[in-house]
Specification:
single chain, Transcription Regulator spoIIAA, six-stranded mixed β-sheet, about 140 residues, alpha/beta, STAS/SEC14 domain-containing protein, two-stranded parallel sheet
Length: about 140
């Protein structure tokens, strides 16, 4: 199932979509999906516009997950996983990463060593959404 079909025809109602400096973020009841722009390097400093939105939608204590739909090639400063404010949120269940290439799968294996919360790799967005619902 295509990404847009999942988001439009799925049972989950889209709360809000935000186009930020790093990419597009889709917020749902128990998870949000990030689609980062091609070539970006994600650092904590670049998350300054995203973090307040996460607290806005999930700061009430309801469980949620972060799904990174890696349709574009980008990188993450692994050390920033250690200091990510999400780690301090008890209702944050973990990261789901949807990969489309072997290189990206390899990157996820490295990222797992730095993540303080569970980090899982998926081959499609539907699998990641299903995982996030089971984690709630």
């Amino acid at each position: 199932m295509k990404r847009q079909e999942l988001m439009q025809n799925g049972k989950d109602k889209l709360i809000e979509r935000h186009n930020l400096n790093l990419g597009t973020y889709y917020f749902f009841e128990g998870y949000f999906i990030a689609e980062v722009k091609e070539g970006e390097v994600i650092t904590l400093e670049k998350l300054n516009d995203l973090i307040p939105l996460i607290f806005k939608y999930y700061g009430n204590g309801r469980p949620f997950s972060y799904i990174s739909n890696r349709i574009n090639s980008h990188s993450i400063s692994p050390i920033d996983y250690l200091n990510c404010p999400l780690n301090e949120m008890e209702n944050f269940n973990g990261y789901g990463v949807v990969t489309y290439t072997k290189i990206c799968e390899t990157s996820v294996q490295v990222e797992k060593h730095f993540a303080k919360k569970p980090l899982y790799q998926f081959n499609n967005l539907e699998e990641a959404i299903n995982w996030s619902k089971k984690s709630a």
